[in-house]
Amino acid sequence: MKVTVTWHGDRRFVGRGPSGVPVLINFGPGETAAGPPPGPAADEDGTRPAGPSPVELLLIATGACTGLDVVSILQKKRVAFSGLEIEVGGRRAPDHPRYFTRLEVVYRLKASPGARPGPEHALEHAARLSMERYCSVGCSLRADKSWRCEVVPEDPRAT
Questions:
Q1: What is the pTM of this model?
Q2: At a CB cut-off of 8 Å and minimum separation 6, what does 20 contact?
Q3: Residues of the chain with pLDDT > 70: what percent?
Q4: Which of 4, 14, 110, 123 gets the most CB atoms within 10 Å of its CB?
Q5: CB distance 42 to 57 below 8 Å
């Protein structure tokens, strides 16, 4: 796979991969590839950055990658669910290159009304398979990984 990243002035870049879909990448004020400076993440004029930083994108990509694995596995197991949220947090080394030393992933599965009991076991199994075997983004990181699974009932008023 090959991607192209082009500079668009100031601290903004646009990346394109084989899909052709552009991704805006933005460094905040004083931020480098090693991470942001201390303080709020806003541009000089007080506005928020126009896009995520490369480090944010890495965590987002990890969440999307493992999420696709988990959804696919749960569907193959015929687990009824109406939603999945993945929260990915990371701790970074204090010195450059400040790589991730630890990833913590929380999977929140929204169980469908009337679903068979026991989606917790299926979710845990799917998460383990993804984090240990299938998620190429997560497996490419040298960080220690841990995960936690939660199953929440669907709110009938939310429909």
A1: 0.81
A2: none
A3: 82
A4: 123
A5: no
